[in-house]
Write a structure and sequence with these properties.
This protein has eight helices and no strands. The termini are far apart. The protein has 199 residues and is mostly helical. The chain is elongated. The chain has helices at residues 18-26, 30-52, 55-71, 82-99, 126-144, 148-159, 164-171, 175-198. The chain has two domains: 13-106, Rna Polymerase Sigma Factor, Chain: A (Orthogonal Bundle), CATH 1.10.1740; 123-199, Orthogonal Bundle (Arc Repressor Mutant, subunit A), CATH 1.10.10.10.
């Protein structure tokens, strides 16, 4: 009788249930963790890019955060959203990166189209596409003029579509503080956009 080897982790069962996928990750199933990476690599990259403003650095930092997340996955409290937990790891890496004087964030206008999510497809009307690009560039310019914590909360709510509760968990602050910070940040962004338009 041939003995079955227990060295190779079992493939995860077919499921979209994040809690089940994470449970399998905690049991050492790398394939299951790969599903999480595929699911969140794009928002992870754009989150890092929002902090550091550099395409290559954002890619490296988001990948490094996934490695750290895999190593720490057993500490994850099941029932919560993975990306909220992962975000704290990524955020710390980005802040550490920015502390280094050699890694100052560049304005998004210097990064190019490869680093920005397309707001219109290739078939779009040229005039509308140009208008979208101008609006997008203006918004990013405004964001880059904000304080880091102001920019961060706008990225989480308006770009990553985090709920207020998820933002509170990610930033480890009360729900009321999230709402207050978001109001202040949006007001600051509005002011910056008005200054850009007036210039």
């Amino acid at each position: 009788m041939v003995k079955k080897s227990n060295d190779k982790p079992a493939q995860p069962v077919e499921t979209d249930d994040e809690s089940e996928i994470i449970l399998q990750c905690q049991q050492g199933n790398r394939h299951a963790f790969g599903i999480l990476v595929e699911r969140y690599k794009k928002p992870a990259f754009f989150t890092a890019l929002g902090f550091v403003g550099d395409h290559d650095a954002a890619l490296d930092l988001s990948q490094e955060a996934f490695v750290k997340a895999y190593r720490a996955i057993k500490s994850f409290e099941n029932g919560k959203r993975f990306f909220t937990w992962y975000y704290r790891i990524l955020r710390n890496l980005c802040f550490n990166h920015l502390r280094d004087s050699a890694h100052r964030p560049r304005p998004f206008s210097e990064i190019g189209e490869q680093a920005l999510q397309s707001l219109s497809d290739a078939e779009a009307d040229p005039e509308k596409a140009m208008e979208s690009n101008e609006v997008r560039d203006m918004v990013w310019r405004g964001l880059n003029r904000l304080k880091v914590h102001e920019k961060e909360i706008i990225l989480l709510k308006d770009f990553q579509d985090f709920s207020y509760k998820e933002i509170a968990e990610a930033l480890q602050c009360p729900l009321g503080t999230v709402m207050s910070r978001l109001y202040t940040a949006r007001k600051a962004l509005k002011g910056e956009l008005e200054r850009i338009l007036a210039s």
